[in-house]
């Protein structure tokens, strides 16, 4: 098995407070790995360390084979990233966004042109190419934002609550794109609060107060907790949490 993310006892402390506490896990190539936890559980902190944006306090981790302490620039070149907060430029057109991010990711003009046509076709956005992103519905923005994050075929794409604010049908469409990326060998690391999305993952980890308290396939977790739904599994684990709202 080829592992694209490996973390052993990865920890981040802010002063006396341990935000992420000795988390250990591996994610295989092409796997869709769900990273769940209540508000404040430590998900964003963990994700920032894995993206090479924040130095761990202790533990070890590699992403795409690169060390999160020493090889952060290589990590950044080999990953894609999408979050609700940072995604597309609203005041640029669809096509301009694709061109801009293609450039940032170091694609040649020729590649950008080819990829851009493929992407517009795949998303059914050909007629919208010259429209401002601001004018698109949220679900379309999210799909475009994801497609842009995998434009350079990264080894891993990190998605931080990528589908906030849209209905289950639109989320399902978004997940079709995730499955395609995974089928092309791109590893997907995704945080979410939606339990329908959790069910779509190959494996899920659930964090409580900085620690990973459960990690398995949705099916096995439901069996383990004698639960009918992921909602119930999540509730069983998260109700003991001290952090959060
Ligand atoms: N720079 C920082 N300094 C001090 N404390 C921090 C810092 N960043 C995060 N924390 C704390 O670490 C804990 C975990 O935060 P984190 O953002 O990782 O949680 P999360 O699981 O991503 O939550 P959410 O779902 O709300 O985004 C929180 O209690 C937060 O207040």
UniProtKB/TrEMBL annotation:
Return the InterPro entries for the record: AAA+_ATPase (IPR003593), ABC_transporter-like_ATP-bd (IPR003439), P-loop_NTPase (IPR027417)
Q: Name one Pfam family in it.
A: ABC_tran
Gene3D superfamilies, per this entry? P-loop containing nucleotide triphosphate hydrolases
Tell me the GO molecular function terms.
ATP binding; ATP hydrolysis activity
Q: Which residues form the ABC transporter domain?
A: 5-234
Give yes or no: UniProt keyword Cytoplasm: no
Q: Which UniProt keywords apply?
A: ATP-binding, Nucleotide-binding
**Could you tell me what this protein is called?**
ABC transporter
Protein source organism: Pedobacter ginsengisoli
């Amino acid at each position: 098995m080829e592992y694209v993310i490996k973390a052993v006892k990865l920890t981040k402390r802010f002063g006396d407070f341990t935000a992420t506490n000795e988390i250990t896990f591996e994610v295989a190539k092409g796997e869709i790995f769900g990273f769940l936890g209540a508000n404040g559980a430590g998900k964003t902190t963990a994700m920032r360390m894995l993206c090479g944006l924040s130095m761990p306090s202790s533990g070890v981790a590699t992403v795409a084979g690169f060390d999160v302490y020493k090889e952060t620039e290589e990590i950044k070149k080999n990953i894609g990233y999408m979050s609700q907060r940072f995604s597309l430029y609203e005041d640029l057109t669809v096509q301009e966004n694709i061109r801009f991010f293609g450039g940032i990711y170091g694609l040649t003009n020729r590649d950008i042109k080819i990829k851009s046509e493929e992407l517009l076709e795949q998303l059914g956005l050909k007629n919208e190419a010259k429209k401002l992103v601001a004018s698109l519905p949220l679900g379309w923005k999210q799909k475009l934002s994801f497609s842009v994050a995998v434009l350079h075929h990264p080894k891993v794409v990190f998605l931080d609550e990528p589908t906030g604010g849209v209905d289950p049908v639109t989320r399902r469409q978004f997940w079709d794109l995730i499955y395609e990326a995974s089928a092309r060998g791109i590893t997907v690391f995704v945080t979410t609060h939606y339990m329908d999305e959790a069910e779509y993952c190959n494996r899920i980890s659930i964090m409580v107060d900085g620690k990973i308290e459960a990690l398995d396939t949705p099916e096995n977790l439901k069996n383990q907790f004698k639960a009918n739904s992921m909602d119930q599994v999540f509730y069983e684990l998260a109700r003991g949490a001290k952090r959060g709202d």
